[in-house]
Amino acid sequence: MDALIIAAGFGSRLAALSPSKPLTPVAGVPLLELGARQAVAAGAQRVVVVTGHEAERVEAFLPELAAKISAPVEAARVADWSKPNGWSVMAGAERISGDYLLMMADHVFAAPLLAGLAGAGGADRGVTLAIDRATTSELIDPDDATWVETAPDGRIVAIGKTIPRWNAVDCGAFLATPELAEAIRGAIAAGKAGSLSEGMQRLADAGRAQTHDIGAGPGAWWMDVDDPRAHALAEQLAPRYLPECYRG
Question: How many Cα neighbours within 13 Å face the side chain of 8?
Fold first, then answer.
C-alpha cells in the first residue's frame, strides 16, 4: 500500500512561522516528516507527496525524508496549486495503482489511527474516511473543520464545511480507491470546482463513501495544524502522543 500526502497549498495561516507549510517544524520535526513517518508505521511502503507552493523547497527535502523513514518518497507536482485540493488528489493518484492512504500534510496522526484506517476497506465502498465523534474537542477549529453527517451504518450522507447537520468531523485521513479520483473528475465535469469534498459527496450520493470511527484514547490522537494557535498546541502535544517520531 502507498500513502499519498497532499502538500501543495499555500498555508497562509502558518506563513508567519514558515515559508512552506509542509516543512513547518513541530517541536523540531517538519509536519511532512511526521505524516510520512506515521504512514510508514501504519504499513505504507511508499510515499507520494503532491507539491505545489514552494515545490522546489519541498522536493529538495524528499531525499532526506526517504532516508529518515527508510521508504521511497516520490514527488508529484500539481500543475496549478491554487486550484482546490481535489486537483492535488488527482495528480498524486496518477502515480498510484490500487488503494492508498490519503493524508493532508498539515494533519498529524497517531500511527494506530492510520493502521486502523488502512484495514477498514471493503468492496462496498470507494473511499473510507477517518472520523472523530468528539466534535467539541479543543483541538478542533470549528471555523475551519470539515463536518460529516453519517447514517446509522456509518455511510457518509453529507460532507463539507457548511453542511447544516453533522455528527462527526473529518480527520483528514482517507483510505482511497481509484474511485475517489474518478469521482473528483466527475464532479469537475458536472461544473464543480474540484475540491476533495465534492468528490467525496459524489461517492456518498452513490452509496460508496464509508467512515472509520477512530474511537478514543492515545492511539486515536490527531490534529490539524493549520494556524499559530494549533501549532503551539501541537508543539506541546506531538512529542507526547507521537514519541516514536522524536526518538534519536
Answer: 27
Give the least confident one: 75-89, 135-149, 186-200.
135-149
Other C-beta atoms lying within 10 Å of the C-beta of residue 46: 18
Give me 29's grid cell.
520535526
Residues near 22 by beta carbon (within 8 Å), at least 6 away in sequence: 5, 7, 11, 30, 31, 32, 49, 58, 105, 106
Residue 248 is predicted with a pLDDT of: 61
Q: Is 215 helix (H, G, I), strand (E, B) or coil?
A: coil
Q: How far apart are CA 215 and CA 195, in angstroms?
A: 27
Residue 142: burial class (beta carbons within 10 Å; 0-12, 13-18, 19+):
exposed
On whether the CB atoms of residues 174 and 101 are closer than 8 A, the answer is yes
Radius of gyration of the chain (CA): 16
Cell of 235: 508543539
Q: Cell 507527496 maps to which residue?
A: 49
- Per the CB < 8 A criterion, the answer to whether 160 and 197 are in contact is yes
Query: What is the count of structural domains for the chain?
Result: 1
Domain with 85 in it: what CATH number? Answer: 3.90.550.10
Q: How far apart are CA 101 and CA 172, in angstroms?
A: 11
pTM here is 0.95
Q: What is the pLDDT of residues 8-61, one digit of tens each?
A: 987 677 767 788 999 999 999 999 999 999 999 999 999 999 999 999 999 999
Domain span holding position 230? 2-246
Which DSSP letter does residue 146 get? P
Q: What is the pLDDT of residues 150-170, one digit of tens each?
A: 999 999 999 999 999 999 999
* Residue 169, all three cell numbers: 468531523
